[in-house]
Amino acid sequence: MRLIKKAVKTLTLLAMLAMLIFMAGCSRATKLSASGKTYTISPSLQAFYNRMGGEDVLGPAISKLIDNSSGQCQYTVNALLCLNPMVSGDEGFSIYSLGNELDVSEISINPEATDGLIINGFKVYEEFVPIFERFSQTTYAGNPISQVHINYAQQRVEQYFEKVGFYRNFSDPIGTVKLLAYGAAGCTKGCSYHPAAEAELSNPSISLSDLDLMEKLGILVDKSAFGKALDKAHTAADGSLEQVYTGVVLFQDATGVVRLRPLSSILAMPVKEPGEKLYDYSSGVVFYAVNDTLGYHVPILFDTFINTHGGTAVSGDPINEIFEYDSGLFRQCFTNYCLDYNPSKPENKQVTITPLGKQYLAMDQTVLPMPATPQPDPSAISLQVSETLPKVSSSEAQTIHVTALNAADQTPLTGIETEITIFLPKEKTWSSLLAPTAVDGTAVITLPILKNIQNGSILAYKVCTTNASASQSCAAGTYLVWTTP
């Protein structure tokens, strides 16, 4: 009996712990998602609201109709819509200049600029131009009051205008532009609405010091071999987010893709021209061809390290042959890092990454070359697709894995954008953009649970690069929808 009571008590404690964990998870989710009281759009503003994109663009109404200097106005999450009843037609509608009241303006730093869409010395970020034009440019968006900013703390690209603000999350496909929550920030009385964290004008709970770029590298391997972080994530001289580790330097660009700096090149490590293949696996090396038949001999131990830590997509190509840098100690450098070999150490510690991070930190990074990763022509991209599950039931979600490779040498390609299309019954389709491929060339999307699909149906899908030219690359696959009777 005592054992039964003890077991019941233990189960009760476990249930309470599970409930606490669940509630904590719900609390975090609530903070990230939008919540609060909403209202019906005033009939006098309904047509204007719909014309400007409705709830999808402006968000729901978060206040009752109020009177101010611009007329009868109503807050939505992202703007303050107004109607002057004394003015007839479309000219009576306006969007109030909340941006000026929110004190987010800055001085133009480029008054003489001529490249792109320039207004009062501010360049409208190219990716934001389509939605800016949808807002009839300055008529409903207002004049730009800031340059474009890369907000690493909130992981987005943003630009402020007098009446609305635009942003794109790093994790969103290029061109997925949304509005900042101007209305929620400006409505200080009569509103009880909290916007989604991603749309807030600022989020002081997030700081760059909280970010660890190694977690965003995108390779599913033990990353500890690259060493510990030597500094906090910071904005580098080239405008990207950067973090230095013991053996590598990572940076994140405006697309959200994390890559490695060409550290060996930046630090001027010894370089040797590629040569002909002289040895093979039987001699303890693997030949890495980098230029037709020319390349470098890489020791098997180094090749194993590379292949278990993201492959050459992470290391880059060799830049020299292995050499003795100190008595009995050997080194070989690749584009993004170097490897050391110490035969006197235990077998599992003989190969280590060269600690070049401190040397990088000691340099003047403002004079360092930071070449952008070139994007291949779509015809040079080879796509591969696979499914997590060979079959799914009517209550399961399918996950599709995409890999983008260089068609010439099958090396992974970073930052490739793709779109998936599922071919449904009755000639219907479902499509969605994927996030850009990570440093290992991969991207993943979990499909929604599809309803009303006949049991036993085979669903076909296609993934294509988002280049509109005739040479775009595609890959196709199928999976079975099956629920056991």
Descriptive report:
The chain has 4 domains: 1-32; 39-199, no CATH class; 213-367, no CATH class; 378-481, Immunoglobulin-like. It contains 10 helices and 30 strands. It has helices at 2-32, 43-51, 54-58, 98-101, 129-134, 182-186, 263-266, 300-307, 312-315, 357-361; strands at residues 35-36, 66-68, 71-75, 80-83, 93-95, 118-119, 122-123, 149-151, 156-160, 165-169, 178-179, 193-194, 234-235, 241-244, 249-252, 258-260, 285-291, 294-299, 323-326, 329-333, 338-341, 351-353, 381-387, 391-392, 399-406, 418-423, 429-433, 442-446, 458-465, 474-481. Residues 1-31 have low confidence and may be disordered.
Topology diagram in text:
Layout lengths: L1 H31 L2 E2 L6 H9 L2 H5 L7 E3 L2 E5 L4 E4 L9 E3 L2 H4 L16 E2 L2 E2 L5 H6 L14 E3 L4 E5 L4 E5 L8 E2 L2 H5 L6 E2 L39 E2 L5 E4 L4 E4 L5 E3 L2 H4 L18 E7 L2 E6 H8 L4 H4 L7 E4 L2 E5 L4 E4 L9 E3 L3 H5 L19 E7 L3 E2 L6 E8 L11 E6 L5 E5 L8 E5 L11 E8 L8 E8 L4
Parallel strand pairs: 24-30
Antiparallel strand pairs: 1-12, 2-3, 3-4, 4-5, 6-7, 8-9, 9-10, 10-11, 13-14, 14-15, 15-16, 17-18, 19-20, 20-21, 21-22, 23-25, 25-28, 26-27, 26-29, 29-30
Distance between the termini: 43 Å
What oligomerization state is this entry in?
Answer: single chain
Main sheet: strands, sense, barrel:
5 strands, mixed
Strand order of the largest sheet: 24-30-29-26-27
Rg = 28 Å
Arithmetic mean of pLDDT:
82
Q: What's the tally of helices?
A: 10
Q: What is the number of domains?
A: 4
Q: Residue ranges: pLDDT <50 for 5 or more in a row?
A: 1-31
